[in-house]
C-alpha cells in the first residue's frame, strides 16, 4: 500500500486570535494519521516497472497478515476457513514488441520475471548487501562466487533463519511471445507479519514490460486487512454505545419533554447520526471481510453518514459555545456564516472520504490526496478557533449579567473542551511518533487504535454535552436567560412606560420576568 499524506488550508469564515490559531493548527495534525484505506484484492492494470539500481520492480501491495489457523492443504478452487494466504490470479506480463522480436521463437526461456513475497523483518535479505554490493540483481562477478544466479534477484539464503523468509515465484517468456502468464498459485502465510509483494526483473531488454491482473490477500478470519480487522468489532461496539446513550437520552427527553428546547433536538440528531454511522461502518467491514472487496453502496453511505455526523457534531459544539438556547434565542446574523462553514466542511469531508474508501488503492496518488485533505484540516482549524472564541465571549456575557448558574454550566463545558484539547495534543504527538518510528508498517497490529481514539473522543464529548444540557425539571435552567436575552436584544419592543420596573416587562403581550443575581 502506498503511504498517505495530508495537510491543511484556511477559510475566511473564522477570525482567529493568535493563541487559539496556533492551538487549532496543532489539532489539525490529527488528520495526518488517519488510516482507513485498505484492500485485500489488489488489481493491476498495465502497471509499469521502476528502475532501482540494476533491477526493475513493481510494488504489488503490502498488508499485515496473521498466520494460518488451519494447516490443511490449500485448494485452489475455494479458500479454506482459517487459512491465510496470498493468491496470484490472472497475472499477465506484456513486453514491448521490439523486445520480443529480438528473441528466437524456438528458445524456451527468453525473459525472467520474479514475484517476491518479503516479510518486512527479512527485508535486508534482498539484494547484495551481505556481499558488500549495492546490486539487487545478480551480476556475473557475484555469480562466480556461487552466491547467486545471473539474471535473478539476490536473496540471502541463511540456513539459520526462519523458513518463512522471502519467497520467490518465477515466470518466463517463451520464444518471441509478447505475453507471459503467471501460473495460478497460492502462497500460505505461516507467521504473523507485514508482507510486501514485489514483481521484478533484471534483464534490461525487458524495459517497458507491464503487468496486469490481481492478487488476493486473505487472513484466517476473512479478507479484511490485518490492521483494519479490529475496526469491525470496534464499530459494532460503538454502535451499541450510541444506542445505549440514545435510550438514556430518550427516556430523559420524554420525562421532561415540556422543558425541551431546540438545542435538545440537535443533540438527538447527533446521537442518531453517530449510531447510524458506526452501524454502517460495521456492515461495511463485515461485507469487506466476507467478499474481499468494498461494497460501493454501503461504503458510500457510511462515508456520507460519517461526513454528516462530523459536520453536525462540530456545528453543535459551535452553537453551544455561542450560547444558543441559553444566552441567545437565535444566531442572528451569524446563521449564514455557520451554515456556510458547515456546508463547506461537509463537502470537503465527503470528497476526502470517498477518495479514501472508494478509490483504487494502486492509484492513490499523494498529490491528489493532499489537495483533498487540505480544506478539511483547515476547516477543522476554523471550527476550533471559533468555538473557543465564542466560549470566551459567552462566559464574559454571563459574568457581566451575573448569571451564576449558567456561568457554572459553561465553565464545566469549557473545562471539558480544554481537557479534550490537551488529550488531543498528546495523542497527536503519539501519532506523529508512531508514523515516524514505523514507516514500513511493522506496528500494523496497533494501527487501528489511531482512528478508534478519535471516534471514542467524539463520543465522550457528546456525553459531556448530553449531561450538561440534559432536559431539566428546573424551568429557569435554560428558558429564563433565553427570555432575558430576548428582552435585552429587543428593547424597542418593550413598552417605554414599563422600563421603570426593573423586574417586570411586557413582551408581545406577555408578562416576562427578568431574573438577576445567580440567574435562578
Automatic annotation (TrEMBL):
Ranges of residues in domain GOST seven transmembrane: 230-475
UniProt keyword Transmembrane helix present: yes
Main location per the UniProt record: membrane
Pfam families linked: GOST_TM
Record localization: Membrane
Residues spanning the membrane: 231-253, 265-283, 295-319, 331-348, 368-388, 409-428, 448-470
Any single GO CC term annotated in Swiss-Prot or TrEMBL for this entry: Golgi apparatus
Assigned keywords, A-Z: Membrane, Signal, Transmembrane, Transmembrane helix
Membrane in keyword set: yes
Entry membrane topology: Multi-pass membrane protein
Name of the protein in question: GOST seven transmembrane domain-containing protein
Amino acid at each position: 500500500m502506498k503511504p498517505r499524506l495530508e495537510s491543511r488550508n484556511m477559510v475566511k469564515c473564522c477570525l482567529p486570535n493568535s493563541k487559539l490559531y496556533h492551538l487549532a493548527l496543532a489539532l489539525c495534525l490529527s488528520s495526518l494519521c488517519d488510516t482507513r484505506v485498505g484492500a485485500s484484492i489488489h488489481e493491476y492494470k498495465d502497471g509499469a516497472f521502476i528502475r532501482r539500481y540494476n533491477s526493475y520492480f513493481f510494488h504489488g501491495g503490502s498488508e499485515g497478515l496473521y498466520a494460518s489457523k488451519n494447516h490443511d492443504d490449500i485448494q485452489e478452487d475455494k479458500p479454506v476457513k482459517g487459512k491465510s494466504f496470498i493468491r496470484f490470479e490472472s497475472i499477465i506480463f506484456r513486453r514491448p514488441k521490439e523486445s520480443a522480436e529480438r528473441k528466437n521463437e524456438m528458445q524456451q526461456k527468453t525473459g525472467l520475471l520474479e514475484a517476491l513475497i518479503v516479510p518486512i523483518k527479512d527485508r535486508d535479505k534482498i539484494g547484495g548487501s551481505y556481499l558488500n554490493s549495492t546490486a539487487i540483481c545478480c551480476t556475473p562477478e557475484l555469480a562466480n562466487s556461487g552466491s547467486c544466479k545471473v539474471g535473478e534477484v539476490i536473496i540471502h539464503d541463511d540456513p539459520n533463519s526462519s523458513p518463512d523468509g522471502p519467497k520467490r515465484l518465477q515466470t518466463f517468456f517463451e520464444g518471441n511471445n509478447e505475453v507471459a502468464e503467471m501460473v495460478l498459485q497460492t502462497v500460505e502465510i505461516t507467521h504473523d507479519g507485514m508482507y510486501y509483494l514485489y514483481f521484478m526483473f533484471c534483464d534490461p531488454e525487458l524495459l517497458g514490460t507491464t503487468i496486469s491482473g490481481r492478487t488476493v490477500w486473505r487472513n484466517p478470519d476473512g479478507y479484511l486487512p490485518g490492521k483494519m480487522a479490529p475496526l469491525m468489532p470496534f464499530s459494532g461496539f460503538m454502535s451499541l454505545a450510541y444506542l445505549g446513550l440514545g435510550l438514556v437520552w430518550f427516556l430523559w427527553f420524554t420525562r421532561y419533554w415540556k422543558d425541551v428546547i431546540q438545542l435538545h433536538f440537535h443533540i438527538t440528531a447527533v446521537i442518531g447520526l453517530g449510531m447510524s454511522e458506526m452501524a454502517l461502518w460495521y456492515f461495511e467491514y463485515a461485507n469487506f471481510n466476507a467478499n474481499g472487496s468494498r461494497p460501493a453502496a454501503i461504503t458510500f453511505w457510511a462515508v456520507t453518514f460519517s461526513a454528516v455526523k462530523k459536520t453536525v457534531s462540530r456545528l453543535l459544539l459551535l452553537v453551544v459555545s455561542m450560547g444558543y438556547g441559553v444566552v441567545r434565542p437565535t444566531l442572528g446574523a451569524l446563521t449564514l456564516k455557520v451554515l456556510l462553514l458547515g456546508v463547506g466542511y461537509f463537502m470537503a469531508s465527503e470528497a476526502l472520504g470517498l477518495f479514501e474508501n472508494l478509490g483504487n488503492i494502486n492509484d492513490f496518488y499523494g498529490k491528489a490526496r493532499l489537495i483533498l485533505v487540505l480544506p478539511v484540516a483547515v476547516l477543522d482549524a476554523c471550527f476550533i478557533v471559533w468555538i473557543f472564541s465564542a466560549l470566551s465571549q459567552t462566559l464574559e456575557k454571563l459574568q457581566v449579567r451575573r448569571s451564576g448558574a449558567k456561568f457554572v454550566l459553561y465553565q464545566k463545558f469549557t473545562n471539558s473542551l480544554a481537557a479534550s484539547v490537551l488529550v488531543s495534543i498528546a495523542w497527536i504527538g503519539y501519532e506523529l511518533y508512531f508514523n515516524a518510528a514505523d514507516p514500513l508498517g511493522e506496528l500494523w497490529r496497533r494501527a487501528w487504535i489511531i482512528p478508534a481514539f478519535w471516534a471514542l473522543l467524539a463520543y465522550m464529548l457528546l456525553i459531556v454535552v448530553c449531561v450538561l444540557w440534559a432536559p431539566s425539571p428546573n424551568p429557569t435552567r435554560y428558558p429564563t436567560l433565553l427570555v432575558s436575552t430576548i428582552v435585552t436584544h429587543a428593547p424597542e419592543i418593550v413598552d417605554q412606560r414599563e422600563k421603570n420596573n426593573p423586574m417586570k416587562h411586557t413582551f408581545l403581550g406577555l408578562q416576562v420576568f427578568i431574573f438577576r443575581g445567580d440567574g435562578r
